[in-house]
Fold this protein.
Amino acid sequence: MTFALRPDLPPPSAKWTGLSKHHFVGGNNDAGAVPVAELVAAATRALEREGHTLANYFMHSGPQGHRGLREFLVAKLARDAGIVCTVDELLITSGSLHGLDLVNAAFVAPGDTVIVERSTYGGSITRLQRLGARIVGVDVDADGLSAQGLSDALDALQREGVRPKFIYTIPTVHNPTATVMSAARRAEILALAHRHAVPIFEDDCYADLTWSGTRPPALYALDGGENVVHIGSFSKTVAPALRVGWIVARWPLMGHLLSLKVDGGSGALEQMTLAQWCPRHFDAHAVQLRAVLEAKSRTMFDALQAQFGDTIRIAPPIGGIFQWVEVADGIDTTRLAQAALQAGVAINPGAEWMTDPEQGRRHFRVCFAQPDHDNLREGVARLAEVCHRTFGVPARAPLAHR
Amino acid sequence: MTFALRPDLPPPSAKWTGLSKHHFVGGNNDAGAVPVAELVAAATRALEREGHTLANYFMHSGPQGHRGLREFLVAKLARDAGIVCTVDELLITSGSLHGLDLVNAAFVAPGDTVIVERSTYGGSITRLQRLGARIVGVDVDADGLSAQGLSDALDALQREGVRPKFIYTIPTVHNPTATVMSAARRAEILALAHRHAVPIFEDDCYADLTWSGTRPPALYALDGGENVVHIGSFSKTVAPALRVGWIVARWPLMGHLLSLKVDGGSGALEQMTLAQWCPRHFDAHAVQLRAVLEAKSRTMFDALQAQFGDTIRIAPPIGGIFQWVEVADGIDTTRLAQAALQAGVAINPGAEWMTDPEQGRRHFRVCFAQPDHDNLREGVARLAEVCHRTFGVPARAPLAHR
């Protein structure tokens, strides 16, 4: 029998066929950096202490998530991001994607308008599209979301009589450009948002990964949470497969987010293990991980420079796990990504990472965190080869000389 | 600033204030039955073997979930439920609530009609209501969903020109009545569904908890999955807080469900731990747990009989974690639940567990799995006391004589 599914579903997924040989897509991380032995010890101790609480949907912590983990986050966010919040203002989610879904669900109805960075996380674009939102993109420069661009967009919408539901931004290690919004820019953005009575949705999931180990105060911190909802994640700093993130929001917004979280709680074993592991190990682990990622970032950057030369324009990331690449005229990154995939190199075409897919065809994104250094170098060489074959650039030396 | 939230949100949640002294709501389980030591060993071994795969969103298993866990489930479902499926037809979800959400999202658009058991899981009712579905309830008798009732409902809808999107049923240890649909009834229901070209959505999350340890073949098994989508869960058999469930569906339906699962995977630590624990321990654990639950069920049943007498009508459950209670005329269980909560006894009022809330006011549901035997007895006595104070029944002996 043929099922009568909703007529407006996204295209069905195909069966999974494994990772590409050079897997530069998604946000996977360095396998060697997973603190396995420490996690064994933490899981053991957590289970021995509170394993019996697994019999309860919310352990003994209520629907906002493991209390010990929230206590760690309250202290960590205060120290690192300047955020002042209580455990009641923290909601543990199943990764920050779940945070995206909850905040979007609270704000966005079909036809609503949202402002985002013109290049932004592809999953945020597709989520907002699925909700029927009108998406307005604003430029990003070296200091982050453009204040002039935001001001212009807000003014234009005001002339239309449209009040956007929120300004979604990834200010600290922006995905995909890896820029960090300056403190001055943060103040400008907050002032604009306040003047137009538009809240800010701050996605801070890469914020622990600046090479320097420091970051400006979160937008939530600068504003006291009055006009900002904030999400974060352990995916980039501990392990993506753990699926543990969080939302910081004040009441009554938190009450609305909670009423939409009808999942019976987020995974408890992960929460109790992290609650055990984090206080003792998070900081030292983050220092090590940043060093691993910075080294891989340099390898990726150097390989791209060496292989592509002036066929591309790139800036060295100052944190994170991604390199954003602008390509020369004549290269279509959607076609490049398709051809590269056939050759075993998976990249994220820019059309999926920009609000204007045509602009996106001039960019692509590569994640350097998972592959090892040799794999990065070989994959970039292979990508350049595919690009040369498909578009005639970059120039390639004869094989024997390479 | 006041956030401009969606106007159609459910009421916001209040801050959590802890469990009631006699906590008979929800689906929590016996804390002593959580196999803590075995889970420590399993988590340790799983992390040591494959902890490094946590660096990848989907471990090395792809978006359908941990391959070893799916392999266990393929074998288990074949043996226990008669289901023939492959690992490609299994999707690990974050609890069966997540399965509900994915299947609902694939089928139900606002205005669509669905058929459910007249008394059913409250979370399913609220989910379908949130999606804007029209919900048609069909009676449940001692053999499960009434075939005559289903036939009448399908005929009536056909006369209206309405084809329901699915028939949602909990056939094996029905929530809340704890009935198990007979094999003969299953055949009748499948034939009716087939004749009307309406798929069946089978929620099997309590199916491992019949006191006998046996169960009829799943509807999915009897139909070969042609017209059935099936969900299940480890919540009731291992621990609700783990949040691990599954969907069984054939392709191309599975491809549509996968395309809606944009969560970056379900919790990996739980999946790899269960994949390690299940093959060796699941069966013995289920035997022990069923004995614990059957004993508590008897305590709850006896206490209700003793305290309420002919003020209520109950049948002894033959599995599961719930007792469904019908009350005499003159008792409104919505008011009873409110008064009882003040006295430290939390029960689920039937209005939340039936498609017709007015009918629901004649019923309530109690979960007997979490409290110990003394707590069950005391809580039922207190509930009877509250009922007597509020509605004049049941008759109470003077305190000194009790």
Summary: The longest strand of chain B covers residues 228-233. Residues 315 and 392 of chain B are 24 Å apart (CA to CA). The radius of gyration of chain B is 22 Å.
